[in-house]
């Protein structure tokens, strides 16, 4: 089995025979990073379209952070052309920024990612993929912001947290994307979905109609 299917196949065989080879994790370890990226359905050549894509990815990354109860200290944006392009038509770039205070706020992440895109976009390239990655993750409950005597941002931060909670509640009730930041959009870069499987159990229009 090891010769034909290598180590993975041998471990699967041992598991089927009752010998434990893959230890179970009773507690899932905290994530070290979170990434949201997509390949575009068509080439993106305009800065506004790339900005919309990256803003959408940043917003979704913020949702993931809040679901995990984490805040991020660093944000990285990357974008590039197809790797199948001719060498002179290839381009790949990434930029990162460190937050002064760890955040899970969609407005913070979108503002930071938009600023990074401005510095990495170059006209003349056919962008095919982009993404947002956050790292330096810590527990929200264990993260205490050090405020100076003259810091007046504490009340604003509490208000933004309530805003994010309200957005999450509406989206849970009425569906993802019901409420979003205006910068988020997907018309220009939406992935191709001609062969997407139908949602038989979650969408009324896709329910199978059996007529006798």
Spell out the key features of this protein:
212 residues, alpha+beta, Dna Ligase, domain 1, globular
Q: What this model shows, in words?
A:
The chain is of the alpha+beta class and 212 residues long. It has one domain: DNA polymerase, Y-family, little finger domain (Dna Ligase, domain 1), CATH 3.30.1490.100. It is 34% helix and 22% strand. The protein is built from 4 helices and 5 strands; from the N terminus they run H-E-H-E-E-H-E-E-H. Strands 1, 2, 3, 4 and 5 form a 5-stranded antiparallel beta sheet that branches. The longest helix is centred in the N-terminal third of the chain and has 22 residues, at 47-68. It is globular. 20% of the residues are buried.
Strand content: 15-25%
Going by CATH, the architecture would be 2-Layer Sandwich
Counting helices, strands and paired strands, the structural category is alpha+beta
CATH superfamily: DNA polymerase, Y-family, little finger domain
Q: In terms of per-residue confidence, which ranges show pLDDT below 50 for 5 or more consecutive residues?
A: none
- How far apart the termini lie comes to 50 Å
Helix and strand run: HEHEEHEEH
- Backbone shape: globular
Provide the domain count. Answer: 1
Radius of gyration: 22 Å
Query: Which fold does the CATH topology refer to?
Result: Dna Ligase, domain 1
